[in-house]
Amino acid sequence: MKKVAFLVLGMMISGVAVSAEWHTSYKNDEMRGTAQKFSQTESDNAVDFDFPYNGGSKLTIVLRSKKTELKAGQKPESLPLTEAIIVISKGQFSCNSYDGCHVSAKFDDGKIQRYAMSGAADGSSDVIFFDNSSSFIKNLKTHKKLILEADFFQSGSRQFKYDLTGLKTEK
After folding, report:
1. What is the DSSP secondary-structure string of 46-98?
2. Using CA atoms in the order 59, 64, 83, 80, what is the torsion angle rounded to 10 degrees?
3. Has residue 169 been placed in a domain?
4. Whose CB among 20, 81, 123, 139 lies 3.0–4.6 Å from 63's, allowing a Cys bridge?
């Protein structure tokens, strides 16, 4: 779990993540012969939290494939994105691994949907996982805009906006 947070954090620090763009990367494990695909986008807006998380926080949506042993001739680009995660750059979600939480999502001008979430198994408070990733990913593929609302420790609900154009889920 922390590896995902470090990957996302590293990409944000290196300036790779830019609003309204999806960035794809791959992780290859030569020892085990497995590969994993990641695609992510950062919120268009930042929210302000109180100290020690002040200075603007963005929310990153990370989609990833399962770690897969590639078949002969198979490329990591062909791996399907099956898991969805959100990571806050500075702050703590109000969610834990034993009783979970939810986020609210509004795609385009549609109805607000609630998604059940789970905290990280390692106790990290800056990452939460979608319990039903397939439904969320399907909506990401078929819509152009998203407002995502999550609850944060001692800060209440905050909203993050996304331009979903540019998500490539096929190859």
Report:
1. -B---TTS-S-B-EEEEEEPPPEEPPTT--GGGPPP-EEEEEESSS-BS--TT
2. 140
3. no
4. 81
Give the pairing type, strands 34-42 and 68-69.
antiparallel
> What number of residues does the chain have?
171
Domain that holds residue 57: 2-163
Closest CA to 121 of 102, 95, 150: 95
Residues 6+ apart with CB under 8 A from 166: 20, 21, 22, 41
Give the per-residue pLDDT at 97. 63
Number of separate domains in the chain: 1
Environment class of residue 159 by beta-carbon count within 10 Å: exposed (0-12), middle (13-18) or buried (19+)? middle
Residue that the structure tokens 């152009």 belong to? 144
Residue 96: alpha-carbon gap to chain centroid: 17
Query: Which residue's entry shows tokens 């979903």?
Result: 164
Closest CA to 115 of 126, 94, 99, 100: 100
Q: Residue 70 sits in a domain of what CATH number? A: 2.60.40
Reading the block at residue 10, the tokens are 């590293």
